[in-house]
Amino acid sequence: MAAIKFFADANIPQKTVDIPRSRGIDIVSLREINPRLKNKEVAIIAFSQNRIIITADKNFPRVVFREGIKIPRILLLVNIEFLKATEIAETIIMAIDSRAVYKRSSIQN
Asked: What is the DSSP string of 23-51?
């Protein structure tokens, strides 16, 4: 099974990126590359690297799809403004873990 790779938008706290990365998850942050990139450019990079985009920008999917840009997937985080960066990171990790468990059980059946 291919490893899941992520691309965190600039609105995702750096600590939220650092925690999954410290656990071996392949995640890059727009903050580390160039936080001024437009959504279209973010989508192009994510697609070229086969990365799932993590964003809290509710307009991101609409903008990207309206322009007809291909992307692997988007993980849209909503209502995270009251969560700590560590809580957001743990939620992402749980989602990854549950997906891996689901895939393993599907393969075994």
From this structure: TT-EEEEHHHH-TT--HHHHHHHHHHTT-
For residue 8, the SS3 value is strand
Per-domain residue ranges for the chain? 5-108
**Measured between alpha carbons, how far is 91 from 104 in angstroms, rounded to an integer?**
20
Q: Report the SS3 class of residue 1.
A: coil
The per-residue pLDDT for 107 is 45
**pTM strictly above 0.90:** no
Q: Is the pLDDT of residue 37 over 90?
A: yes
Identify the sign of the CA torsion 96, 50, 17, 40: negative
Number of residues written out for the chain: 109
